[in-house]
Design brief:
The protein is of the alpha/beta class. The chain has 2 domains: about 5-300, NAD(P)-binding Rossmann-like Domain (Rossmann fold); about 305-505, N-(1-d-carboxylethyl)-l-norvaline Dehydrogenase, domain 2, CATH 1.10.1040. Helices cover about 45% and strands about 10% of the residues. It is built from 21 helices and 13 strands. It has helices at about 15-20, 45, 50-60, 80-90, 120-130, 160-165, 175-190, 205-220, 220-230, 245-255, 305-325, 330-335, 340-355, 365-375, 385-390, 390-400, 400-410, 415-425, 445-450, 475-490, 490-505; strands at about 10, 35-40, 70-75, 95-100, 105-110, 110-115, 135-140, 195, 235-240, 260, 265, 270-275, 295-300. The strands form 4 sheets. It has a 5-stranded parallel β-sheet, with helices on both faces. A hairpin with a 5-residue loop joins strand 4 and strand 5. The longest helix is centred in the middle third of the chain and has 24 residues, at about 305-325.
Length: about 500
């Protein structure tokens, strides 16, 4: 099949015919039952956890009978579309790897067995999590989804959280749903499930533990004590660039593979998942899938790996995206194929980020840095700068500011980091260097945009998230220089100047 007109809709009853063209699940999906409930099903989850589970069941015929199917849960209003698409496709989706040489490889993933939309039926979600068969509740709810204050690190009781804490409230947040499900398991004498965060946050398991325990403490201190004693929150690191799926992707999948898929996943070939092997006791039932058999790394301490990924890969996405958009680029690959910006990224990674890292077992950091430039330059992935520029007020505190603080504490230079912050401020002006409008997608945009336009250029730094950097000359001096350079010389010349400075030492 090479034409969209001959393509087959992806469903259980078309799977055998689709399997004549691309690999499909080799296991009996009818035998699958839920063992994992996942909150926040998007491309990122489906490109790693669901993919690894599918791969394991494909390689071990008995695995599908161990009850490790995934029930996805949507918590947000916008997740209704995901439910509709996955219901129509019996939970199936196409995973496409876009290779640097322009080739695509595809497979159909079958590990998702159900999808529940919490606003429609919260009771069904609660009972699925309370079911003894559910042994893991995993999360990809974004960096801002844990309600942790960026400076204090304390749990932030937002209006939505406050509403879930009201007596008799029907849970609407991840906190309310997970804690209520744990309360039911406690009352029924069922072992607690493991809460597995897969979000891009340093110490994501520790952060999740802090958030859910804080919510439980506000609701019922006795329950909070039970959670602290019985619920495990392993740390993890996930590495795979997974851009948003476009209509062009859907059309090309139909053309190349003969599959009509309403929500396929496209990603790079590279994938890495490092997990702390800390899962709760489930009695006679296994506490987790045997993911190590398909390449997942189980380690005692995830922190070195996650710091490496957050401060090199994720932070580099921030470092390139505002500068690239200001210069008129739209794609990550375009920026990384520009020598000035590639040199800036390497300077940031080598001179500022890497000195803040601990040794990473089995990793050559110099090779890893250069591999990132190659991965970012993969033209087939077509990752957009706009995606990486969204919700910056969640991302900068997570990826860039920890590097700034560690560098300042060590007496190091922070010119590249300060340039990234300055490029964010310049980006908030809403127009690139060619006069094209820039869309500002940030939940705090109403506050950020006026501050970025303030007459005092340090006003932006006086927000809580910067934690006093406005009064630190070792940061403000390079920040003010970069801001002035961006406004007078432009993004490319500014990036080149920073890279040259780094090369001179």
């Amino acid at each position: 099949m090479t034409a969209a007109t001959a393509a087959l809709p992806l469903r259980a009853d078309t799977l055998a015919r689709i399997g004549e063209t691309v690999p499909v699940p080799a296991y009996d999906r009818a035998a699958l039952t839920t063992g994992i409930v996942h909150l926040g099903v998007g491309g990122f989850h489906r490109a790693h956890e669901a993919m690894y589970l599918d791969e394991w069941m494909n390689t071990d015929p008995a695995a599908a009978e161990q009850g490790w199917g995934i029930c996805g849960v949507g918590v947000l209003a916008g997740d209704e579309r995901m439910k509709r698409v996955l219901d129509e496709q019996d939970g199936l989706y196409t995973l496409v790897l876009k290779h640097p040489d322009g080739s695509w490889t595809a497979r159909v993933v079958g590990s998702l067995v159900d999808y529940l939309w919490a606003p429609e039926d919260p009771e069904a979600v609660l009972e699925r999590m309370a079911d003894p068969a559910t042994r893991i509740v995993s999360l990809t709810v974004t960096e801002g989804g844990y309600s942790i204050h960026p400076v204090t690190g304390e749990f932030d009781v937002t209006p939505a959280v406050q509403a879930d804490l009201a007596p008799g409230a029907v849970p609407a947040t991840a906190f309310g749903l997970v804690v209520e499900a744990l309360a039911r398991r406690r009352e029924r004498g069922i072992p607690a499930f493991t809460v597995l965060s897969c979000d891009n946050i340093q110490g994501n398991g520790d952060v999740a533990a802090r958030s859910f325990r804080a919510f439980a403490e506000l609701r019922d201190p006795d329950l909070a004590g039970w959670i602290a004693e019985h619920v495990r929150f392993p740390n993890s690191m996930v590495d795979r660039i997974t851009p948003a799926t476009t209509d062009d992707d859907r059309a090309e999948i139909a053309r190349r593979f003969g599959i009509l898929d309403g929500w396929p996943v496209v990603c790079e070939p590279w994938v890495q998942w490092v997990l702390q092997d800390e899962f709760g006791d489930q009695g006679d039932a296994p506490a987790r899938p045997a993911w190590e058999s398909v390449g997942v790394q189980f380690v005692a301490e995830v922190e070195p790996y996650e710091k490496m990924k957050l401060r090199l890969l994720n932070a580099s996405h921030q470092a390139m995206s505002y500068l690239g958009r200001l210069a008129g680029y739209d794609l990550v690959s375009q920026v990384c194929r520009d020598p000035a910006f590639a040199a800036f990224l390497l300077a940031y990674m080598s001179e500022e980020a890497t000195p803040t890292l601990d040794p990473v077992p089995g990793i050559d950091l110099d090779a890893y840095r250069h591999s990132l430039i190659e991965r970012f330059g993969n033209e087939g992935v077509r990752d957009t700068l706009a995606r990486n520029c969204a919700e910056t007020s969640d991302r900068i505190p997570t990826f860039i500011l920890p590097v700034v603080r560690d560098r300042l504490a060590a007496g190091g230079d922070v010119t590249a980091c300060a340039t990234v912050i300055a490029s964010w401020v310049r980006y908030l002006g809403g127009v690139d260097e060619n006069g094209r409008p820039l869309e500002i997608v940030d939940r705090n945009a109403a506050t950020l945009v006026p501050l970025a336009a303030a007459e005092d250029p340090t006003a932006f730094l006086r927000q809580d998230l910067f934690g006093g950097l406005a009064d630190e000359p070792r940061f403000t001096e390079p920040y003010l220089w970069a801001l002035q350079s961006l406004r007078t010389r432009g993004a490319r010349a500014t990036a080149a100047a920073v890279a040259e400075r780094g090369a001179r030492g």
